# Entry
Amino acid sequence: MDTIVAALAEQQAELDELLDSLDHDDWGRPSRCEGWTVADVVLHLAQTNEMAVGSAQGRFAEAVARLAEGLPPTDTVDEGVDLMVARQRGAPPDEVHERYRTSAAVLQDVLRSSDPHARVTWVAGDLSTRTLATTRLAETWIHTGDVFHAFGRTPTPADRLPHIARLAWRTLPYAFGREGREPPGPVTFRLVGPSGEPWDFGEDAPTVVSGDALDLCMVASRRVPAGDTKLQATGPDAAAVLELVRTWA
# Structure
């Protein structure tokens, strides 16, 4: 758990360092998230950090109710978070930045003091606090890239990626289930990290996905299609895995 929270803190700090350098107009730039500015992405991260704090403290429903107060019911999670951002959009950039910083620091403290095996409520249903921490790392990494994109930059690949790649591998049954598909058979990921080190997940299986770890994480975050990468997949579930793999609820 300490390793994951440390990786989360590093990822939050990478984004915070960029935000420190922005002027007022920069916060209004369009991000890689369609329809969202840089400020919208940072607001969303603050909101979901606050939800995660509520989850770890056993008050997830209360945290969501506060953020969604007065909003109409929605059919999907994406619609719900879009409405939550729209409801609180327009605050001055320094307020959004401070809210992000505060939520990040509180989340780190709460996760460090939590039982990593405790079951908590999240958007996807019940999960362990350790998995909750990993999902926050994955989402923060994804949205850091979305903000960097607004300035024609990309984050530096880091040793945080194996946590995200492993999450994508472990949650394949969930990803298939969300699309109404039968779970895949055994799947192995054989990836190469930024420094050239091998990152393998799973025993030898009929379906194998191999290639660059950053490519896998980008595909799992739905930021690039698998066909635009050099990932290779073989076996009975190869095409479906590359289509459905994901790292968030």
Observations:
- Residues 161-244 form a domain with the Nonspecific Lipid-transfer Protein; Chain A fold (CATH 3.30.1050.10).
